Amino acid sequence: MKQLMDYIEMKIPAKPEYVGVIRLTLSGITSRMGYTYEEIEDMKIAISEACTNVVRHAYQDDEEGEMVIGFGVYQDKLEMMVTDYGRSFNFAEKKQELGSYNASTTLDQIVEGGLGLYLIETLMDEVQVINQNGVTVFMVKYLSGERETHATIVSELEENEGRN
Amino acid sequence: MNIKIDKQQKNGETLVQIAGEIDAYTAPKLKEELLPLAEGKNISLTVCLKDVSYMDSTGLGVFIGLFKQLKQNDGELKLINLSDRLVRLFQITGINNIIHISAQ
Lengths: 164, 104
Prior knowledge:
The complex is a heterodimer.
Chain A: E1 4-13, H1 19-33, H2 37-60, E2 66-74, E3 77-83, H3 91-97, H4 103-108, H5 114-123, E4 126-131, E5 135-142, H6 151-163
Antiparallel strand pairs in A: 1-2, 2-3, 3-5, 4-5
Chain B: E1 3-10, E2 13-22, H1 27-34, E3 44-55, H2 57-72, E4 76-82, H3 84-93, E5 100-103
Parallel strand pairs in B: 2-3, 3-4, 4-5
Antiparallel strand pairs in B: 1-2
C-alpha cells in the first residue's frame, strides 16, 4: 500500500469561468507527477466534467455555491475529488464512505449530463459517486505501468470501448 | 481563457472557424453564435476545429444540438480539421457515427 504523499485542495465558486482554472492546476500537478500528454488530456476532461456537473446544479438551484476540488498525490496514482458543497472535507473520512457504493449503480443516480459521466467513467481508472450532503465524484488515475493490479477496472474499460 | 468564432459565407455554404477552448464557460456562447446559422432550409454548415485546444461534453452538446436543427431542415453539418484529441472524444462517445467529422 503506497502512502499519500501530498494533498492539495482548492475551494472555488461554482461558476463556469473557473472550470478552466481547475484544468490548469491539474495540468501542473499531473505533469510534475510524470503522466503522459494523453493521460493528462484525459484527466482534464474528466475533472472538467465533474466540475461542470456541480456548476450546472448550482445554476439550476440558483445558488451562489462553491465547489471543493481535492487532489491526493501518490507515488503511483492521482486521486481527484470534486464536491458540490461549500465546505472543505476530510479527505480520509470521505474515502471511508466510498465502500458502500459502486461505480455502475451510483453513476445512474445523476441522470442529467449523462455524457459527461460516461466520459469520466471511460477516461479514469476508477470512479465513484457519493450522494451524501451533496454529490462527490471520486476519481483515480494510475501512472502507466501501475495498472496490472486493477484488472477488473481495466476489463470494464475494455468493455466500454468494445461497445463503440 | 476565451473562444473566438469566425463566420464566412461562400457559394451558399457557411464556414465557421473556432479557436480556443470549448467548455462549460464558452459552450453557451458558441451555441448562441452557431444556432442562428442553422435556421433555414438546406443549409450546409462546415465548422473548422483546427484551433480548438480543448473540448468536452459541453462542446459535444452544442454540436449535437446544431446537428439536430440542421437535419430537421434537410441541412448538413461537417466538422473538419479535428485534432487527434478531438477525434478521440467523438469516437469514445460514438458521436462520430452520427455527425460527420474529419481529422486534421
